[in-house]
Amino acid sequence: MAGGVIAADSGSNQDFPAKLTGQVLICTAIAAFGGLMFGYDIGISGGVTGMDEFLMKFFPNVYIKKHHAHENNYCKFADEYLQLFTSSLYLAAIVASCAASFMCKKFGRKPTMQAASIFFFIGAILNLTAKKLGMLILGRLFLGAGVGCGNQAVPLFITEIAPAKYRGGLNVCFQLLITIGILIANLVNYFTSNIKQYGWRISLGGAAVPAIILLVGSFMIVETPASLIERGKKERGLKTLKRIRGVDDVEKEFEEIVRATEIANKIKHPFRELTKRPSVPPVICGTIIHVFQQFTGINVVMFYAPVLFQTMGFGSNASLLSAVITGTVNSLSTLIAVFSVDIAGRKKLLIMGALICLVAQCAIGGLLKTYLTETSKVPSGTAKLVVGLICLYVNGFAWSWGPLGWLISSEVFPLETRSGGFFLAVATNMFCTFLIAQAFLSMLCTMQAYIYFFFAAWLVTMIVFVAAMLPETKGIPIDEMVERVWKKHWFWKRFYKSSDIERPKASIQLENQDKQNQ
Ligand code: BGC
């Protein structure tokens, strides 16, 4: 790895003695509830914004437009406040994930997850009891703070407690729980849409359940050894390491963590480190993967599937049912990634997934262009075909860009810039999600069926980028990415030509110390 990090991290590719203990599985399962909170929120907003009572109470203009006989199909949901309801959460999440990256370092991963669950719980209660639009948006901001803290702390937590050889599979559990959260939200919406007056309150208040589970569960989980050691609690770190690995022989791994954290701790300004030349390749690839993930158009389906289906003339209940179907496809398809990501490799999955999404988007665009005019309904056979194509599209996304966006951005950074770099990735994801959530309904209104070709063009761009620019990271130990991936890549290697000059001083010092000691 670049510079002295070799000294600190080279042991990471050794197989440290470890069992896949119950402790690790329980901790992963509990922490992944952070993903479920996130997913629940993604899924719930679309259904709720299709419910008449909710619209009547908070967005009467949209309600009137929706029921206006001659309203343009593509524009009946366009309302900037309705968009703000969905997107405000993501703005709060960006700010929160920045604060969370400091909190993770200073107080640990566990308290950051606890903060996430408390924010999320408050947000859910505010939404459950909302009387005015302001209260509703305030609730969304709290939920956003919860999502920001959770998305920053949970993947980091899972990565640090997982034994190296199970890291990939355990990491994808975060995405799996996101998709299960979306599915649960779709089911909840399906049932509550039949409850007049307060069905939407149950839907929004339901977010409190995963928050409580995460909060209560967090008292049962351990802090990660790396975080304990980083904060000077070496003995506790060692004890925890023995407990989660299920073996006594953990000295090598312990030493490895101690040395790696020594290097990381000597770097006073991790964010400044990210602006240096050797950080350019992981920063570009780790963040652009999230831009691309969002510009597959996935959240158009996740947030607005019920709204989209209503646009095609499905009744409100049928549209929610269709959203349940896409949610099921999403969860089941994510399992494919759990088992194939370490066999097929990241690049193959990304390219194949994008090709499937591309075919589906073009077909949907073509069908809607032909059959959905501004005021007509799509014929029922065509509408069903479109639902089928949306399922195909979700399937392609679920085993590729969904989990791999999170996985790749968490594995491409060297230790000293990992948490700062990962913050950039999370913030990019949240910002692009915000853009899509905020702009989609207006774009649908102006671009109409062409919107699907807009996303198709992005898919072509990402296929080219992955094929030419993204290195394969399958099977590479997380701490050897620079040596074995970036320095070997036909393009990115130029950023390392003078890497010795660019090496962090602390790393060089440590390596010199090593030489003296020998
Ligand atoms: C993305 C979300 C998306 C979800 C769908 C996640 O990886 O970050 O924006 O809604 O996948 O399953």
UniProtKB/TrEMBL annotation:
Which CDD domains does the record match to this protein? MFS_STP (cd17361)
For this protein, the parts annotated as crossing the membrane are 20-40, 81-100, 112-130, 136-158, 170-192, 198-222, 283-306, 318-338, 350-373, 385-408, 420-444, 450-470
Subcellular compartments: Membrane
Q: Which InterPro entries match?
A: MFS_dom, MFS_STP/MST-like_plant, MFS_sugar_transport-like, MFS_trans_sf, STP/PLT_plant, Sugar/inositol_transpt, Sugar_transporter_CS
Q: Which UniProt keywords apply?
A: Membrane, Sugar transport, Symport, Transmembrane, Transmembrane helix, Transport
Cite a GO CC annotation: membrane
What membrane topology does this protein have? Multi-pass membrane protein
List GO molecular-function terms, semicolon-separated: monosaccharide transmembrane transporter activity; symporter activity
SUPFAM superfamilies according to UniProt: MFS general substrate transporter (SSF103473)
Major facilitator superfamily (MFS) profile domain residues are: 27-474
PANTHER family associated with the record: SOLUTE CARRIER FAMILY 2, FACILITATED GLUCOSE TRANSPORTER, SUGAR TRANSPORT PROTEIN 2
Q: Which NCBIfam families does the protein's record reference?
A: SP
> To which protein family does this belong?
Belongs to the major facilitator superfamily. Sugar transporter (TC 2.A.1.1) family.
| Name the UniProt record assigns to this protein | Sugar transporter 2
According to its UniProt entry, this protein's organism is: Hibiscus trionum (Flower of an hour)
Phylogenetic classification of the source organism:
Eukaryota, Viridiplantae, Streptophyta, Embryophyta, Tracheophyta
